[in-house]
Amino acid sequence: MPSRHLWLRLTCLLLVLALLGGYGYASWMQLLERHHIQRLDWRGPSLSQDGLHLAHLGLHQQGPAGELRMQAEHIRLGWQELGSAAPFWQQIEVSRLALDWRPAPQPPASAEPSLDLQRLANALPLVPHSLRVDQLTAELPCAKGRCTLRGEALQLGRSQTLLNLRLTLLDAGNRLAWRTQLRSAADALEARLVLAINGRPQLELRSSLQDDADGMLWRGELSAPTLGEAAALRDWLNDWTFTPDTQPPETPRNAALSASWQLQLTPGAPNLKHLRQASGRLEASGTLPEPWPIPGIGQLQGDFSLALRSRQGQWLAEQLTAELTLQQPFNDWQRALPQALRSDSLQLRIAASPDSGELPDTLAGRALPLTLDLRGKGPTPFELRGRLALTNAPPWALQLSGAQFETSSPNLYLGDWAAHQVAATLHFDAYLDRQRLSLDLGAESLLRAAKLSGPDLRLERLSADLSDLQLNAQLSDDALRDWRLEGTSTLTAQRLSHAALHPQGWRWEGRLNATEERLELDGQVAADVGLRLPFQLQYDDARGLHAHARLPELFLRAGNPLAKTLEAWPALLELNKGRLSATASLTQRPGHDSPLVRLELTGKGLAGLYDRTALSDLDAHAQVRLDHGELNVELTELRLAEADPGIPLGPLLLRGHYRAPITRMKQGTLQLRRAESGLLGGNVRLQPGQWNLSQDNLLLPLELRGLRLERLFTLYPAEGLAGSGVLDGQLPLRLGPSGIQISRGQLAARAPGGHLQFRSERMQALGRSNPAMQLVTQSLEDFRFTTLRSRVDYDPQGKLLLTMRLEGQNPAIEQGRPIHFNINLEEDLPTLLASLQLTDKVNEIIRRRVQQRMLERRAANAPKEP
């Protein structure tokens, strides 16, 4: 039987154990509460020589940072290096580990996150010396909401200052093997990250942070000699970093990247602010041996390298080289261009240059001198070369000097316009920054085309000299604002063809001034035949289009360039003397469908020919207006000293107005306010009136006053015929589809009458052979008439019929007894007029035209063969 002393000892021991158990339980509960552990349970504990085994371990933690659920299977906690402080067990093995982490919503951080090296060094001993997880599943927040991370072979090893982590992640059949090494000390941190995908090394990152007297020194190297599995890395990152409606960029199938840096951070815990204010150097290079599709840009391929230097956050570019090819460049932007102007690929070469030339103040002392060579391949290949000065620190700016741009295309089509064998050579200097753009074209900047044709126009061997043009613009939100293009330019076409013009060469030379709202042209248009037209054009959004052209006085004695220029110039009209001038204007108001056209013509002392009619001393002034589809011609005055179609007419005076729809130019309304002409010592006049030319027959009642017979007999080629007297009359002249016609016209001699003499050998022989005609021939040798009346008829075939009544006496016959004659005369008037023109004094051109016209009339009137 135990002694009392033994029972006392056992009782004390049990009491101590109970107290220790109670204290341990209370401490354990406080520990769980302090770490916000809501539930902790395990199953299947067992002990063995190699450690403590648990079949299952579950944990539910919910605190200010968020909610964590953990499920672990088949856990071994090794006895090796078992300690009395966290993490207690240094050797941990887990067969399967499942984590579900839901972070609590965080308020916006007031300060940027920083890296505390001392705190990291103090936290390193809390990591077990060895941790291995065979299978890992983690539900974590991501850009899409919640994502699942699956991995295997998680191995974590730690020494006193070194941490090694190996993790293999599984994603869509790919194995992403991460290997991380972290070395920590009180004043330094070194990291190394290596990634291999499907057994192929992809990238390696080395980085170190170290405290020094000036703050923190950060060194690093990034090496990616091959990125053949970059697509797998992109697909894995896609779930974690991109939202469902975001399309991740394509990754290069094969690429090489490298970078190195050494940055001095300002004192304090490293954060983004210190990084932005760092000083140091960065070098980077890359190789894309295969095309890499970049959305919105194209497929990029080639090499590049750069070196950057920073002084307290001010980054400067020290070196830049690139040799890149871009396939299918900027497709979205190029769709706005005509097919012929789109490029299939771009080749860019940039290299360091020993000299950047003269620089503006915005680039002086901070420019990186480069040489630029940009080439485009496609239907319209081009090449751009020059010296490029690029700022090596913000604010950015660039200058392109001594630049030359060359391009050519066999065919270009813009709407209804087509250009063939187009070539351009531009020499220029340019400047660009975030506020402005300027471009100055230099000498021999030319645009050429073998042919340029539109709906109504064709230009051949076209050349535009743009050597003096300047473009200046303000930039806002990457768009041009307040731009201005100005300077002189020359446009030459060796041959211009238009329905209204004779084919010949034309040249424009003048000044151009264009802005976003306004266009101004001021210069001169010249034709090869010597025609010169000063020309001005203005256009703006508010007032529309206004163009003005002026024809300086042409002295026609030196030639008539208008006849050699205008197709509408009458072929039978030749002016060889006098002066001719004109002004023309065109106005197109906003919102109006048709333009307003004004034309003013002035002729002084004009002389020449129209068909078989000689014209002399013609003065004329006319105003033409085309508005709202209607043509108005105001003939202020036309004065002609003489027109000679065989019988001299003049002086002639016309004043009138013509109005017609533009669609029916020949069917308008003619109003004559004055129309008269001298004729045979008298005059012929048309009473003021108005005529509608759309009618089939027009009646023009002509009034004849004071026609003198002596003038008529002077012109009429009849042997021995003479006389005197004054005639008046009316001729109802009709214009119809078949031609000119006069029916029942009247002529009569004024009282007291006149005198006729007809003495010819042929008439006397007729009287001797025919007694009935003897009295007639004797009477007409000296006939004093008191009455001379005639009916006048003229048909469209040119036949003139005069039915005359002649009353009078011959004093030598039967003591002057009255004698009456009824005479019918028929004459081919066009032939008669033509014969009157065939004299030695007539112009040779008129002679040829008269002879040709007479041959045509004889052929038309000849009897037709049965």
TrEMBL record:
Query: What lineage is this protein's organism placed in?
Result: Bacteria, Pseudomonadati, Pseudomonadota, Gammaproteobacteria, Pseudomonadales
- In its UniProt entry, what is this protein called? YdbH domain-containing protein
The lineage's top-level taxon is Bacteria
Q: What Pfam families does the record tag this protein with?
A: YdbH-like (PF11739)
**Organism of origin:** Pseudomonas benzenivorans
* InterPro entries referenced in this protein's UniProt entry, alphabetically: YdbH (IPR021730)
